[in-house]
Design goal:
Length: 396
């Protein structure tokens, strides 16, 4: 397992929401598919062989034997590229809450998940809280600086600006304000599983251009790599499950699947519009999600699903010819799936396999990454969460 860091040296534009015909706002993270495309382009530019339609394919020619990237190129389609989040953060779970009005120095962050499972009701004071969204590190929201850049499209036949074609991109700046209110470098981080040889080859690419408009200088990132210990182990999962279930009575034992990245769970089977999704009862949706996530029903039963979904559209560049991709529904990062144990023991190996592989489709592009019983639910549990590094039960 290697940690990959991308230090931003120029504004970054990752295709996000197109709010109207001439305004687009960048995402605040780097999807695995975008990272894969950036590396593919870098390898193609360094390739001594011709690559058809700029599509990276291992050629197996004589030049490949002496190529410095032969291992990566040969096994490129097998590498699972991760989502890179700013400053090594992660998305807030949908059960995260924060006080609307905080006193100076107060964290005021709570997680309501265990309260929903134990008391099945709102806690006192919850009406004065708001749902937390975005990326956080140790509970604190990471606030990136966005800059609006307005340009005009070019008519290359007339070699002049197109009439009425001004458009604005809201890009991520290469600086942000840290906890000390000082400007610091923006960097994106994630973990990637590589062979030592593949890691050595990728580490030769020190400057990588990521995202859109790289020909205009956007998305310049200095890359660094370092080996890190494996966090997804059977022992770590066992400890997290034990810590989460501490204090839950009634003989109930839960397993929580926290979605760390967006997931393709084929919701289109239900229907592609919002009405189709809401027509399903809660029990029907639970049954559908159980099938897509894939945990054995003899061992675990899905009880609740806290989630939001969104339509993704764009171009499919995974084939040799680009094609407009149909809109697809994704479950947004931060979703929380609550399973109840059915048998006498936890099947840790099954959970470990799911945490390593992810759920849904396109997991090699960083989609569907999950974490079993994320520590956020323990550290910020409203029934006894963390406040200024200490356990706190005074949430009124």
């Amino acid at each position: 397992m290697y940690k990959i860091d991308a230090v931003l040296k120029s504004p970054l534009m990752i295709g996000g929401k197109k709010l109207n015909s001439n305004y687009r706002e960048s995402k605040n993270y780097i999807p695995g598919s975008v990272l894969r495309a950036a590396y593919a382009k870098a390898l193609i530019q360094r390739c001594a062989c011709g690559q058809k339609n700029n599509y990276l394919t291992f050629q197996g020619q004589s030049q490949c034997r002496t190529c410095a990237f032969q291992t990566v190129c040969k096994h490129f389609s097998e590498i699972s590229f991760p989502v890179l989040y700013p400053m090594g953060g992660s998305p807030y779970p949908v059960t995260a809450r924060g006080k609307k009005y905080q006193q100076e120095g107060e964290i005021g962050i709570y997680d309501i998940l265990k309260s929903r499972l134990v008391t099945q009701a709102k806690v006192p004071g919850e009406s004065g809280w708001r749902r937390l969204e975005g990326i956080h590190l140790d509970g604190q929201e990471i606030k990136l600086i966005h800059s609006a850049i307005t340009r005009t499209a070019v008519d290359y036949h007339r070699n002049a600006a197109k009439e009425g074609s001004l458009y604005t991109q809201n890009v991520i700046s290469e600086k942000y304000k840290d906890n000390n209110d000082e400007l610091s470098e923006v960097w994106f981080s994630g973990n990637i599983r590589l062979s030592p040889q593949a890691a050595a080859e990728l580490s030769q690419i020190r400057l990588l251009y990521i995202g859109a408009d790289t020909t205009r200088g956007f998305g310049a990132c200095y890359m660094s790599y370092g080996e890190v210990p494996e966090d997804s182990t059977a022992e770590n999962i066992r400890k997290r499950i034990y810590n989460f279930n501490e204090g839950i009575g009634g003989g109930q034992q839960f397993v929580i699947l926290d979605l760390l990245t967006d997931a393709y769970l084929e919701l289109e089977k239900i229907g592609t519009d919002a009405i189709s999704q809401t027509d399903l009862s809660d029990s029907q949706m639970i049954t559908f999600l159980e099938e897509e996530i894939g945990l054995k029903r003899q061992t675990y039963q899905l009880q609740k699903a806290f989630k939001f979904q969104e339509v993704y559209r764009g171009f499919d560049t995974s084939e040799e010819t680009e094609a407009i991709r149909k809109g697809r529904l994704v479950v947004k990062a931060g979703a929380v799936f609550v399973y109840q144990r059915c048998g006498q023991h936890f099947d840790i190996e099954e959970l470990l396999k799911l945490e390593l592989q992810g759920i849904g489709k396109y997991t090699k592009h960083g989609f569907g990454k999950i974490r079993v019983c994320d520590s956020f639910h323990i550290n910020y549990d409203v029934l006894g969460g963390k406040k200024d590094g200490k356990r706190d039960t005074s949430y009124n």
